[in-house]
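ESCALATION

Customer reports they have been waiting on this structure for their group meeting. Please prioritize. Original submission:
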Amino acid sequence: MTTPATKQKGRFLLLRRLLICVLAGLLIFYHSLTLYDLYLGTDTSEPTSFDHVQSVFRVVITLSLLLVVFGRRRALWGMWAGIASLVATHYWAHFGNLPVDFTEGRHPLSYLKGFIFPTIITLAFHTPSRVSDQSEEA
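Update from on-call: job pushed to the front of the queue and completed.
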């Protein structure tokens, strides 16, 4: 027999799982679309070395988010490494005066918004507590 508390806990876990899937799906779609546009899109210009460096980080982000969706907790580390590296390349372009268009008119703090979705995904990832596991076994 299921208790109301067990049902509520199950719904809460399902909601968190759905939140992870939606946010990770949006990020996977965005980074995949960016890679597609860069390499297979209609743009006739050749990708620069900066674009190739960012592409590596976008692939790391995409693959680690796929693993996060499938419940692999260690993939969060890959996601964070990829996101932090991508944000670092944005700062490199901004302060290094690289010839890229996305830095025009942007405030340096605007690149930090790239950490919002990964933070929510990390906080929503389920970590069972030892107290609740021990009480369920008794």
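Sent to customer with the following note: The chain has one domain: 14-127.
Escalation resolved.
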